[in-house]
Specification:
155 residues; alpha+beta; five-stranded mixed β-sheet; elongated
Length: 155
């Protein structure tokens, strides 16, 4: 491989999801582009799409893809069921953090919902927390420092 890994997530609300992944998770918008139907359709994207490339601080890229064809036009609900890890395909995105606590504190106000109970658990010496982003995609946060979870969190 010659470059860090990239992953694309099809979204319903490009502005909402860009704010979420930049303001809360810590990505940085790097580039945005309209992919014309002549490229998007043969590539399996259904037609014209808008793409925002978000740089992950540790390397790699998260591409937010908004179809312009109306195929993903259902209203966004923060109460939608998260995508199941028990189905084939992408299960979740993992972000490794130096400090989990400020991110976890900011997630509810950004429209995310906790999926683990307690919110932060200790597993294999790491603090881990699973969340549904504002569109129901599962996000795993891993605090590599491990140690004791904060108040109200599991051991």
């Amino acid at each position: 491989m010659t470059r860090p890994f990239e992953v694309g997530v099809v979204v319903r609300d490009l502005k909402l999801m860009e704010r979420f992944y930049c303001d809360v998770i810590g990505c940085r918008a790097d580039h945005r582009s309209r992919v014309p139907r002549s490229i998007g359709r043969p590539a399996g994207l259904g037609g014209e799409v808008m793409v925002v490339w978000l740089r992950v601080p540790s390397g790699g890229c998260l591409k937010l893809v908004l179809p312009r064809s109306g195929r993903v036009s259902a209203p966004v609900s923060v109460h939608a069921a998260p995508l199941s890890a028990g189905r084939p395909g992408l299960a979740y995105l993992t972000f490794h953090l130096d400090d989990l606590d400020p991110v976890v504190a900011a997630l509810p106000a950004a429209g995310a919902r906790p999926l683990s109970d307690p919110v932060v658990v200790l597993a294999r010496g790491r603090r881990i927390s699973f969340w549904a982003d504002p569109e129901g995609n599962v996000v795993e946060l891993v605090d590599v420092r491990g140690g004791n979870p904060g108040p109200g969190h599991s051991n």
